[in-house]
Structures are given as structure tokens and as C-alpha cells.
Design brief:
Layout (H helix, E strand, L loop, with lengths): L17 H20 L2 H15 L1 H9 L3 E3 L6 E4 L11 E4 L1 H5 L3 H16 L2 H10 L6 H18 L7 H4 L3 H4 L9 H7 L29 H5 L20 H15 L3 H12 L10 H12 L3 H10 L12 E2 L12 E2 L4 E2 L6 E2 L10 E7 L8 H10 L6 E7 L3 E3 L17 H15 L5 E6 L18 E5 L15 E4 H4 L15
Parallel strand pairs: 1-3, 8-9, 8-11, 11-12, 12-13
Antiparallel strand pairs: 2-3, 4-7, 5-6, 9-10
Length: about 500
Amino acid sequence: MLGMSKRTNAPDTSQVPKEVRDAVERARKVAREQIDNCHLPTHWRESVDYLDENFAFFLTHVLNMGKPEWSHSLPTAAVGLPHDGADLTDFNYYFNPTFAALLTPEEFAFIQAHETMHVLLNHLKLIESGKKKGKFKDARKFNVAADCVINDYLSSMGLEPGRIRDMGCFGPDIVKYDCSNSTVSEVYLDIPDQSGEGGEGDDEGEGGGGQIDGSGKGGLGEYMDGMSKSQMTGDHDWLHNPDDAKGQGNASGKIAEQAGMPQDLEDKAADDDQQGTPGAGPGSEAGAMRNFVDQKGVSMKWAELLREVNPDTFKKRGPKPRPSYHRTPRKLQGVYDSRMGREMGVMPVKRDPDSHRGETPCIVMFMDGSGSCSDWIQNFATLAKSVPPSKIKLIAYTFSTYTLPFDLESDNPKMASGGTAFSPIEAEIQKSVVPELGHYPKAVVVMTDLEGAFYDVLPDSKNKERWLWLATHGGRYDYRGANKFGKVVKIEDFCEGMPGIKQVSSRGW
């Protein structure tokens, strides 16, 4: 490691990789004064003070795992795993001094906690054991999956990522869901394949090849420009070093055992360790979907729709209140609670997770009250009853030229009768559903013979693709005129595999 003075002077270019030299030069053009005037030991203490004031759990482990070492030989940050049999006191952090100087204390604390989590979750042992089980063949995908899990978890705990949120790997951007309650094994399956012409280390975001273009980010963006998203929070080379894998993996495992973790982190690590080939076992999402289909007597297409409405539907645990481990007010610290058997100053505080889209996952279902659709009422009820209430909100109606709530518990539910019109569906959504949810439902499922039309009220164009029409009679009676939007699926195909599938009526054929 290169020696450093108290201030972050420009590195000796003869000893620094070109990638880092270029990054430093770009950053210094924008933030020269900030880089030159940053006193790294003070900057480190400020970030630790932030953890001390807010996050006792992470403070404990950051301090246990050693003081930082500064080196221009790596672009951002890394962990130095010790020899086999090592303990917490042998652990090392490494930071590029220019990169560290460009971070706020809160961002610096986020990076520290991120690197610590790689060790506590023993990701080196995980990737090596996973390869033996036939998974984690793509190192890039593993890096991105691990970062998404860690970054989303830290964010859910209340740590502020700052600009890292725009430049690092976060689940909502890369796999379209919050990964804070997922395992690396689960997220790995959903990481997009590499596209574009980026190098092996590039990480996918919404736009394909995920190299960072962070201009205008106060020097940090310029420093990270052209690097991959996973480099934002550290160097992953140590995770893929076969020469040191066994010894370092054992050391990391011992550190994780010594550290003492909250139950949700222990569960996350155990889940990853026990899962075999992704998508094959009962603990995987695919296995959970198959179990759901078998137990509820529904089709796989219905299970896939539920997953689309809420990507966490078939995750092993799903969204739930999580311990934040915020430190309580200082006046309560040192006060011993005899009922809980611990000091009040380190009590975990429960907080409910927010949807990454800010929306309540919701399906609204409408059953056509026409006599020609009566054979399908039981299938409609079976699908509706299968919706897991802890994951997805369900609202069910029957309709004709008006709507009525559909009683899922009744053996003979009251049905709307008369002609068939589709405008009452949208009118009911706007009248009752949107005010309750605060937004349009994620999916509108209509079971009908399609022998009807829209007369006045229509959904907004941006919501039309949320409609799914389950068409009886092969969709032959589609009289919607010019208002044919959404996806139409023959109900026999959609309900394939369900008990009691009805044959198509011969009416009019």
C-alpha cells in the first residue's frame, strides 16, 4: 500500500493504474480544493460519528474491523480479508484517498457499512460453495446481485446513500424490485445478461451497459465516470480469488460468527448457504410458485401475474417490518430495561418497508354477470381467493351495466344482471379504488365473454395496458369496437391445469 501524508496529495503517477490516474485528473478539475483540503483521519472520524449517532449496530462492526488504509492502487474501496483463523482485529479496510475525499461523511459511512456487510454475510464463502452447486457462474452477476442486496438493505435500515444511490447497484433500478429482503441467490436469477459493448465489469442498469456517466455530481461523478456501477461501493476482486478462497472464506466465516448479527441477517446468510441451483429447489422463487399453484389449485399463468403485480409475492419471506437498529435518544442510553434484558440505548426500532414504487400492489377483479359466463364463476372465485393478502391487495366485483362487490365467501354470490357494459368498471375504479389506494391498481382482471362495449368512461391511455381480459367462448364475442386495449387471453388457456375447467359453450358455434 502506498504511504500517504495527512492531506490527500496527488498520487505518484508511476505507481498508479491509468484508470485511477484518469479518474483523479477528472475529479481534480472539478473539486481540486475539496480533494487537497480533506484531512482523511478527520473525515474518517466524522463518518464514524455519524454511525455513532444513528446506527449502533454498524458502528460496532465498523470499529471492530479496523482502521482504514489509504491507497491509490485501487479505484474506490476494498476489504482486506486476513489469513485463515483470523479474528476481527486482523481485518483491514482499504480506500482510495481521492475517492474517500469526495464523499460526504454520510456517504463514507454507507461505503464502510457496505464493505462490512460483504464480510458479515460471508460472500466469499457463498460464491465458492455456490460454484460447486452449479450456480454463480457469472462473476459480474454475482457482484451486482450482492451489491443490490446490501445496498437495498442498508437503505431500508435508514442509512443515507446520497449520490451513491444514483451511481451504485440498487435493486429497483437493475431488477425492478427492492432486494432488501432477498438473498443473493434469488437476485442473481434476475440480473440481466450483459449487453452493449461494455467490458466484463460493467453492470446493467435501466439503459443496458451500465457504465456511470456522473457528470455534475460535485467531483464524485467525474471520478466515477466510465466505471461500472458495482465499483461505486468497492472492488470485488477479493471475492473471486481462487488462490485465497478457502482460507479467506473460513476467516470471513469466523468473523461473521464472532460478530453477532440480528436474526434477519443470520436468516439471509443461512438461506443463501442452503439454496442449491437457483430456481430448482423448494426454497427458490420458482419452487415457491410451483408450491403455490399446487396448493391453491390455480394456473402457473396466474402465479406469474401475481409476481408481476408484486415481485416479492413468492420471495421466501417477502416484505415485513425490519429492525432498523437506530440508536435511541442519548438520555435513554444506559437505562436498563429488565423486561427486555438489555439497555434501552440499543433497542431496535421497527419500521415498515415502503414499496419501491410508492404504490400498494393491488389487483381489481371483475366477473361478468351474464348468464353465458356463469360456468366460470367458480374459477373466478378460486383465482381471487388465492391472492395472498399479505402481499397483494385484492378488490373483487361483479358487473353488468353496474357493479356490485363480489362476495368471495358466499357459495352463491349475488351477481350483477342485465346487459354488459365495460364503462362501469372504469367508473368504479375511479370512484372507489383510486381514492382508497391513492393510485391506479397494478392490474385490472376482467372475466367476460366480451359481448359488451365502452359507452363513455374510459381508462387513461397510460393505464390501458394494465387490463387483462379473460375471454370465454374463445373471445368470439368481442364487441368492444374501437376500444380494444389490454391483453386478451382465452380463459381456457389462462386457467389451464385448474380443477373444474369448463368446456367452451356451443352457443352460436
